[in-house]
Amino acid sequence: MSCFICKKNNLFKFLSLGHQPPSDAFLSKEALEKEEIAYPLDLFFCKDCYLVQLGFVVDPKILFSEDYAYNSGTNQTLKQHFKDFTSKLISKYKLTEKDLVVDIGSNDGSLLENYISHNVKILGIDPSGVTRLAIKKNQSTIVDFFNEKTAIIATKKYGKAKIITATNVFAHVDDLHSFMNGVKELLADDGIFVSESGYTYDMIEGLQYDFIYHEHLRYYTLKPLVTLFELFGMEIIDAERIPIHGGSIRVHAAMRGKYPISSAVEKLLELEKGSGLYDEKIYINFAKEVEKTKLNLQQILVDIKIAGHKIVGIGAPAKGNTLLNYCQIDSQIISYLVETSERKIGQFTPGMHIPVVEESHLFKDQPGYALLLSWTIAPILIKKLKEKGYGGKFIVPAPKPTIL
Prior knowledge:
Elements: E1 11-20, E2 39-46, E3 52-54, H1 60-63, H2 76-92, E4 100-104, E5 121-125, H3 131-136, E6 141-142, H4 148-158, E7 161-167, H5 176-186, E8 187-198, H6 200-205, E9 218-219, H7 222-231, E10 234-242, E11 248-255, H8 263-274, H9 280-306, E12 311-314, H10 318-326, E13 337-339, E14 356-358, H11 360-365, E15 369-372, H12 378-387, E16 393-396, E17 402-403
Parallel strand pairs: 4-5, 4-7, 5-6, 7-8, 12-13, 12-15, 13-14, 15-16
Antiparallel strand pairs: 1-2, 2-3, 3-9, 8-11, 10-11, 16-17
């Protein structure tokens, strides 16, 4: 095994979350009788370029299949994030009807639809079945994985892109070097590639171990990204921390020498170095704290069940399945998960096989306790669910398991 970026073998394993099935591989009732495959979920730190990455790659065709369950349009927080993000890009880079914007991992087209009222040309590229929703909205879409070959096809048909975006997908790509060659192929000479990825700083600081799952092959800090873009004749011209997905990093990159470099880049590099993110010690400590959090949460849940109370889960996000599987929380502990996504309702969670039901069950049933699986937005969820009529207590599973 080698580093995705520098290709060296100087990797240090610091955390194992066991063997887990893909986090978005929800099951039908009939599928519960079939064999379920689990894969290693281990994290490594590269001592040469400081990248954090998984040690095992699941075939992307398994992860992003026709039955892929994630749908951007059901997440209102994310939809607002996309609206704000596209508005900034339109303003910052003065986009017009002459410009083409490409979104890699375009999903149901929720990001791209924000350009339509500005008459900016759009193209989505995504391999999953959820693209049918974008196609129904008449959005130009290439249903395929993005790589150098796909980029050549897109360029011939649609021309060069002024902006290429990859939001919460740049860390998913197995063949990273082919992806980067594709970006260079499709990008105009003065084009900008903007990526948003989970930020390792926030993962460590907030003990967000549930952000680790097979789709996320890499966990970025800015330093290894600088190394990556340099390998392809590009440079990072701007970078910022953003709150989406519990804390992410947004990076703007262009061909070397095309744009001035913002002072924000150096400031973020200094923050990372000062925080110890280039030292393996911080990752060893992270693993110890993850284990403590698991044991504390298990104890809280067992105590509640012994006292005779019912516990349900709020939401069925991919990250929630990492937490449920790592902590071995099954349907004997959690009676069901409530959801608003039609693609998940009526299904069972991978690994722990907890049934997913409509959110309305929570208000009718009024269980004593509700485990928040999207706990990084706990204040928003708690306020919303109380306003809708839920009267029980909430369990926040991390960074310190707490009952509210």
